[in-house]
From TrEMBL:
Stretch list, region Disordered: 1-20
PANTHER family on file: CBS DOMAIN-CONTAINING PROTEIN CBSX3, MITOCHONDRIAL, REGULATORY PROTEIN
Name used for this protein in its record: CBS domain containing protein
Domain of life: Bacteria
Taxon lineage: Bacteria, Bacillati, Actinomycetota, Actinomycetes, Kitasatosporales
Boundaries of every CBS domain copy: 24-82
InterPro entries (UniProt xref): CBS_dom, CBS_dom_sf, Diverse_CBS-Domain
Species this protein is from: Streptomyces roseus
């Protein structure tokens, strides 16, 4: 049995909507988009993480790759050890703004079947990762 600790609240008080900024995790490892899939999988194993933020040469976030996605690419018939992360990412995004409401971001993630999305600032710099609770 799991115990849940309840916090008393005043009658009629609605909890303030939570923004992504308050719910995101630290960004974790960030790698360049010219890294190969094999090296990225090694970085993930070493960092004990299931995802990496991918950045371009200017340090701007271009997306997020997961261990499952990279494993699927590696298992594909067209795989070579020269495939780079930029080849795996495809189109940029989706991304979350730190000011987005958590409920809105979670809805979009569930609709797109994503476990995590990068949170970026107005310039495209990575601030963190929003991951769905399992």
């Amino acid at each position: 049995m799991t115990l849940v600790q309840m916090q008393p609240r005043s009658a009629g008080a609605d909890p303030a909507p939570q923004t992504v900024e308050n719910a995101m995790e630290a960004p974790g490892p960030q790698v360049c988009d010219d890294m190969t899939v094999e090296v990225a999988l090694s970085v993930m194993a070493g960092a004990r993480t299931g995802h990496l933020l991918v950045c371009d040469d200017d340090g701007l976030c271009t997306g997020l790759v997961t261990r499952a996605r990279l494993a699927a690419v590696r298992a594909g018939g067209a795989y070579t050890d020269r495939i780079r992360l930029r080849d795996v990412l495809g189109d940029s995004g989706p991304f979350a703004s730190p000011m987005t409401m958590v409920a809105e971001a979670e809805h979009a993630m569930r609709y797109r079947r994503l476990d995590a999305v990068p949170v970026v600032d107005e310039h495209g710099g990575a601030l963190g990762v929003l991951a769905l609770a399992r």
